[in-house]
Design goal:
Blueprint (H helix, E strand, L loop, with lengths): L11 E2 L3 E2 H10 L2 E5 L2 E5 L9 E4 L3 E4 L3 E2 L15 H13 L4 E3 L8 H10 L7 E6 L1 E2 L7 E2 L3 H15 L4 E6 L8 H13 L3 E7 L3 H8 L6 E3 L10 H10 L2 E2 L14 H9 L4 H12 L12 H9 L7 H11 L3
Parallel strand pairs: 7-8, 8-9, 9-12, 12-13, 13-14, 14-15
Antiparallel strand pairs: 1-2, 3-4, 5-6, 10-11
Helix pairs in contact: 1-10, 2-3, 2-10, 4-5
Length: 329
């Protein structure tokens, strides 16, 4: 969950449990928090026993991953104010079972990929680094699509160098550039794939029609669109991915800058002994077997809480009720 979304008002969890006690319970494993009519089970704060998904049919990952974007400086620009903390967060994410780490060359720019290599290289077995190219950063908070084939080829080579990889397991076109035919941009990635520089190709912020068009040029194994319990603009894209077995990586899984809001959802979370952010992440995992949430944070405490969301267990009726509440948020 994003740091700016989780302020001091969330210092106490659920029905009044302090963060320290909550973390102690989740890390100890097997702790049950009973609230209202339902029981929510928290085992060890790890995604290791959460159901997995195989990206492209040959890259198994735990479905709750980690988005590294928030480890950079303000405005997703420059180095983090506490570089050592950023390294600790990355290492702890992997320890907790997040073996899908998502980044992009535009995060920083470049600094996010460098941090990942600094923290994790040589990479533990099974860790999948997913990066993206196709956007440039004129300044903090600014994002401009750039899908020129020659530029994308350079992006791939530079990401390989920064990440200290011989091959990138998942390379995503960060945005489709309206000034460049999609086929030309994807052609550059296909060429890099044929050269053994990237293993699989994904897209970001696309419609089903755009995915169909892209798949005529190259196999597409993942899609990364904005999606969360209260923002389902891309429901049709998720439905398409479910039908085709394509991994769906929701960005802003806990609401991005706006966060998750709604009195009804807040009450439901409290009744089940969790935060609204944990409820939102758990809902995503429940929503679809192709869902691969990648919540990001620069806080070790928030990271622990995010990963604990994989252990939220509710009945089908409870999820149905929560889904209805989300529609009112």
């Amino acid at each position: 969950m994003n740091d700016e979304l989780f302020g001091i008002n969330h210092e106490r969890i659920g029905g009044g449990m302090s963060r320290r006690l909550f973390l102690r319970a989740t890390l100890a494993g097997g702790a049950s928090l009973l609230a209202g009519r339902a029981a929510t089970l928290f085992a060890a704060a790890s995604a290791n026993d959460n159901s997995a998904f195989s990206i492209g049919g040959d890259l198994p990952v735990n479905r709750l991953g980690f988005g590294a974007m928030r480890l950079t400086g303000e405005g997703i620009w420059g180095w983090p104010p506490d570089r050592e903390n950023a390294l600790k967060v990355l290492r702890r994410a992997v320890e907790l079972g997040a073996n899908l780490i998502d980044t992009a060359d535009a995060y920083g720019p470049e600094t996010d990929e460098l941090l990942i290599a600094e923290a994790l290289y040589p990479y533990p077995k099974g860790v999948v680094i997913a990066t993206k190219g196709g956007q440039i950063r004129p300044g903090p908070g600014e994002w401009v699509p750039k899908g020129d084939p020659e530029y994308l080829k350079q992006c791939v080579d530079k990401s390989l160098k920064r990440l200290k990889l011989e091959r990138i397991d998942l390379y995503q076109l960060h945005r489709i550039d309206p000034k460049v035919p999609m086929e030309e941009s994807l052609g550059a990635l296909k060429e890099a794939q044929s050269a053994g520089k990237i293993r699989h190709i994904g897209l970001s912020e696309v419609s089903p029609e755009q995915i169909e068009r892209a798949r005529k040029a190259v196999p597409i194994v993942t899609v990364q669109n904005r999606y969360n319990i209260t923002d389902r603009k891309w429901e049709n894209t998720l439905t398409y991915c479910e039908k085709e077995g394509i991994g769906f990586m929701p960005w802003a899984p806990v609401g991005g800058q706006r966060g998750l809001t709604g009195d009804a959802l807040e009450r439901a979370a409290k009744d089940h002994g969790v935060t609204i952010y944990q409820l939102g992440l758990a809902w995503l995992l429940h929503r679809s077997s192709v869902m691969l949430p990648i919540p990001g944070t620069s806080s070790l405490a928030h990271l622990e809480q995010n990963m604990a969301a994989a252990k939220v267990k509710l009945s089908a009726d409870e999820w149905k009720a929560i889904d209805a509440l989300a529609g009112q948020a």
